[in-house]
Design a protein that fits this description.
Structural class: alpha/beta
Radius of gyration: 20 Å
Number of domains: 2
Strand content: 15-25%
CATH superfamily of the largest domain: Bordetella uptake gene, domain 1
Largest sheet: 6 strands, mixed
Shape: elongated
CATH class of the largest domain: Alpha Beta
Distance between the termini: 27 Å
């Protein structure tokens, strides 16, 4: 689904967060605009190399290009990265990179100390479809994979014991009456190594995590959970789940940029200008194309409704 919507802007131990809130909150000028007084931080609740980190670094470059301000990416554990931003109310020189998993799914599975409503949700900037991948040559088709999984079952790598990958594995199993046996890994790279070594038979991953191995002929992309074919050359011929007779709506790992609670209008305007300028740039187009994402810019009331709908879908699929 290629769409670009522009709308108006309208527990982990707290000891980890000791000392937060002491930094600069920037400067509001006589004309009512706000700007940071130093380097802005892009907080990424993930280790380097994954989809969140890739977004954080791409956006940090966009901030520097379109605002002239310096930006740095800081990597944290998943929950820690989100909570650090929550504990900076009114502070606009730090923003977080969020997704469906850490904004919606995880808070419904664990007492993490936050929900998506605790933040100033600035903009959704991309949607990331998940794919089922296998070691090259193991399955001749998606139908063969489904047939084998419908018997004794197949092992499938997923990142974390909960969150979006777990939900998606369940959706796939239900849609095709398969037995999928989850094997938990810490990250996408670990999942890929598990497939390549033969420790697991399948993995559910986003395209940015596995495209180099596909291009090298080491992995096959067996199935897409998207609603239409991808534009990326390596993914354009991958069968859609809907092609195989299911009307299941699969969760999408959308990606958002969010701010601390209680940002004022001038602070939000600074970030929205930076985000919109970035999404209109060649660098953003390269980010979307190289990671096989669907472009989107959703803000304001549209964004609130989008996240609320995603949350409702989660509740309906996990009752």
């Amino acid at each position: 689904m290629n769409r670009k919507i522009v709308a108006t802007t309208s527990a982990l131990s707290l000891l980890l967060l000791t000392g937060c809130g002491q930094g600069s909150s920037g400067e509001t000028h006589d004309d009512g605009t706000w700007s940071p007084s130093g380097t802005v931080e892009i907080a990424v609740g993930a280790q380097p190399g994954g989809g969140s980190d890739i977004l954080g670094r791409a956006f940090a470059s966009g901030v520097e290009e379109h605002t002239g301000d310096s930006a740095v990416v800081e990597n944290y554990d998943t929950v820690e990265g989100v909570l650090i931003v929550k504990n900076e109310p009114g502070k606009a020189d730090i923003v977080g990179v969020g997704n469906y998993s850490n904004m919606v799914v995880r808070p419904h599975e664990q007492d993490v100390g936050y929900t998506w409503k605790d933040y100033t949700q600035l903009a959704l900037v991309a949607e990331d479809v998940s794919y089922v991948v296998a070691q090259s040559g193991v399955f001749s088709s998606a139908e063969e994979m489904i047939e084998q999984a419908s018997g004794e079952g197949l092992t499938i790598a997923q990142v974390g014991s909960g969150a979006a990958d777990s939900l998606l594995t369940g959706q796939l199993a239900d849609a095709f009456n398969m037995t999928l046996k989850p094997v938990v890994y810490e990250g996408g790279g670990d999942s890929i190594r598990g497939v390549l070594s033969g420790d697991v038979e399948l993995a559910v991953l986003e395209a940015a995590e596995f495209l180099p191995q596909v291009e090298a002929g080491e992995l096959d992309v067996v199935l897409s959970t998207g609603t239409e074919p991808a534009e990326h050359a390596e993914l354009s011929d991958v069968p859609l789940a809907s092609d195989l007779g299911t009307d299941q709506r699969f969760s999408t790992q959308w990606r958002v940029i969010f701010g601390a609670p209680d940002l004022d209008e001038a602070q939000q305007e600074y970030w929205m200008d930076a985000i919109e300028a970035w999404t209109e740039s060649d660098a953003y187009d390269e980010y979307i194309e190289s990671n096989a994402l669907s472009p989107a810019l959703v803000t304001g009331d549209e964004l609130t409704s989008y996240i609320e709908d995603s949350e409702q879908d989660l509740l309906e699929n996990t009752e």
